[in-house]
Design goal:
Blueprint: H1 3-15, E1 35-41, E2 44-50, H2 62-74, E3 82-85, H3 91-100, E4 104-108, H4 111-124, E5 128-132, E6 143-148, H5 156-167, E7 170-181, H6 186-193, E8 198-205, E9 208-214
Length: about 220
């Protein structure tokens, strides 16, 4: 059982909530209902295939969009190797790959999300790859930029594995960008990261914080 699935199992045990399924669960019995999500940003058109069993299946997630827009409008550096960790069907990585004209590596644990992401890479004609990984388990490279909308509801332990694991995989002068809700612990996460690195609040919107961390 992966750390994702363990946290999900504990969540079910503690809350009795049998309806909620996080995007990192691999439910082979879940009916497929493939759909298109059409999206435009900076005069570029995107189409994303989505399905049941993945995060934000019906529309582009607001927090992910806020993260991408904030990065594009505030970042002044050029990053050559980019990682989108916990990529889902690929919105963050594919959008950045197209708009920055850069190669992006993407990883997720959800097999259906990975399948969709491969389709979306082809549909949007970007230079990207996607593979399966339980957080950073199968990530072998270091990166100039790691960007993520981490699975907050998986619990703080998993969240910090995403963030601290990302810091450990940054190249010199690399940066970790992420988005988190204030209601789900943004202040405490920032404070904890500041014990081991520099963590800067870049922008706020509708209760979401975009932060950048570097060693």
């Amino acid at each position: 059982m992966s750390v994702y699935q363990l946290c999900y199992t504990n969540f079910i045990r503690e809350t009795g909530n049998l309806v909620l399924e996080h995007y990192f669960t691999n439910n082979q019995n879940l009916k497929s209902e493939l759909r298109d999500i059409n999206f435009s940003l900076n005069e570029n058109n995107f189409t994303f295939k989505s399905d049941n069993g993945v995060f934000s299946k019906n529309k582009i997630d607001y927090a992910s969009l806020f993260l991408v827009k904030t990065f594009l409008t505030t970042n002044k550096k050029e990053f050559n190797n980019i990682l989108d960790i916990g990529c889902g069907y690929g919105f963050i990585g594919i959008t950045l790959s197209k708009l920055l004209n850069k190669h992006v590596d993407m990883f997720d644990i959800n097999k259906r999300a990975i399948h969709l992401c491969k389709m979306n890479i082809e549909i949007n004609k970007v230079d990207a790859t996607v593979d399966e990984s339980n957080i950073y388990e199968n990530v072998v490279n270091n990166y100039d930029l790691i960007i993520t909308n981490p699975p907050i509801r998986a619990g703080k332990s998993v969240l910090m594995d995403f963030l601290k694991g990302g810091l450990a995989r940054l190249n010199k002068d690399g940066e970790l960008w992420f988005v988190i809700s204030k209601d789900q612990g943004a202040k405490s996460v920032k404070k904890e990261l500041e014990k081991i690195c520099t963590c800067e609040l870049i922008e706020k919107s509708k209760g979401f914080w975009v932060l950048s961390a570097k060693n």
